[in-house]
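[audit] Reproducing an earlier prediction to check determinism. Same input, same settings, fresh worker. If the tokens differ from the archived copy the diff job will pick it up downstream; this log only records the rerun itself.
[audit] input (100 residues):
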Amino acid sequence: MGVAGSYDCITKTPMGDQKSVFTVEDNGDGTFTGKNAGAMGSMDVENGKIDGKQLTWTMNMTVPMPMKLEGSATVDGDTLTGSVNAGAFGSMPMSGTRQG
């Protein structure tokens, strides 16, 4: 089935659990685009790379402060498990389930 799809995700942040929808659009060449849309707005995926079931990407957060986020995750069936590294705030666990 591949890694493309929309995932209902929860990221455990210092400000509590943040729900979002993480969208993965496979470009077919080992890269992906998409976005992570939640209560604090939407962030576009940049530098999205696919290596088998592994995803890596970056996002530029603007709210509540400007920060570059580095994400990595593994897709296993309909489950996404990974983390988002937020610089000084450290690594925040991220997990999600593909929307049906």
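[audit] rerun output stored. Observation attached for the diff report: The longest strand covers residues 16-26.
[audit] end
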